[in-house]
Each structure stands twice: as structure tokens, then as C-alpha cells.
Design a protein that fits this description.
The longest helix has 20 residues. The chain has two helices and 20 strands. With 165 residues, the chain is α/β, with parallel strands linked by helices. 18% of the residues lie in helices and 36% in strands. The chain is globular, with a radius of gyration of 23 Å.
């Protein structure tokens, strides 16, 4: 139907359009996991996550801890942490007993969990938040602890639901 030069022209044109179409596609991001969040925080990078369900544990105490006393170590999270409309099926921990050592977490910037659901054990016991702590419109479906937590600025729990202890 077409001559050979015309076939080449149309073939090259289709290839070019295909390359352009693919180059305008957004990059494929790997699925967000708690480990991805922790890796970003360990690098000092801010975390902003929306509309993600986490099935693994988000354990801030696994980040590098500095000893403060022979029995207390502290993790310093120096980047802002922001979650919106996320669900946490695993544990979310900012406090842990490891043998004879207690690991505590200090958040040097804002700590935000807005419109989130915590379906596993959650502990911010003895956590320190220098910035704003926001847990507005958040649902805690299992036991949660904020015992001894300190907030350097405002702490928001408006319309939070505590279904567990």
C-alpha cells in the first residue's frame, strides 16, 4: 500500500510518538513502607505521606540511638514527620524496652498524624516533640500510650477517637 520510504517514515513517526508519550509518564515509585519512612528519617530527610496503608511496623526506636545513661538511649528525629489519611496495621513505636535499656524518641520538628488509623499497638510513651504534635481526626483502635510525652508547642487531639485503652 505504501512505498518502502513511506513505511519507514510512518514507522519512525510512531516510534517517536511512543517515546514522547512514555517520557511524559510520571515515574513509577516503589510502594511506601515503614522501612522507607525510617530510611528517609535516618538520612535527615522530611517525611510527608498521604493515603497509604502500612502493613509493617513503624518503629522509630530502630533508628540510631545515642546513650544518655547506662540504661537509657535516645533516638533523635530531626526532620518533620507528616502523615495524613494513613492506616497503620502494624505497631507504631517511639518507646521500647530492650533488655535493660529503655529507648526513647525525641522529635526535633513537628510530628503529625492527621486523619490516620492506628490498628496495632501504638506507643509515644515518654516521647518528646519540640514542634507541634497533631493527632487530629485520628482513630486509635488498640491500646495507645502517651504517658510522660512532652510537647514543646501545641498538641492537637481534636476529634481523636480512642477505641482501645
Amino acid at each position: 500500500m505504501f512505498s518502502q520510504p513511506a513505511n519507514r517514515f510512518w514507522g519512525l513517526l510512531l516510534c517517536g510518538v511512543g517515546v514522547l508519550a512514555c517520557s511524559n509518564m510520571p515515574p513509577v515509585n516503589p510502594p511506601m513502607t515503614a522501612q522507607t519512612v525510617l530510611t528517609r528519617l535516618a538520612a535527615g530527610l522530611p517525611v510527608r505521606v498521604e493515603n497509604v496503608t502500612f502493613s509493617d511496623d513503624l518503629d522509630f526506636t530502630t533508628l540510631t540511638a545515642s546513650p544518655e545513661t547506662p540504661t537509657v538511649a535516645r533516638v533523635w528525629v530531626n526532620a518533620p514527620v507528616y502523615f495524613r489519611n494513613c492506616t497503620f496495621s502494624g505497631k507504631v513505636l517511639a518507646f521500647r524496652q530492650r533488655g535493660d535499656t529503655t529507648v526513647l524518641c525525641s522529635f526535633g520538628r513537628n510530628l503529625t498524624f492527621v486523619g490516620c488509623r492506628f490498628n496495632g499497638e501504638t506507643s509515644f510513651r515518654s516521647a518528646s516533640v519540640v514542634g507541634i504534635g497533631a493527632f487530629s481526626h485520628t482513630q486509635f483502635n488498640k491500646p495507645v500510650s502517651f504517658e510522660g510525652a512532652r510537647f514543646g508547642a501545641e498538641a492537637y487531639f481534636d476529634q481523636a477517637l480512642f477505641a482501645g485503652e
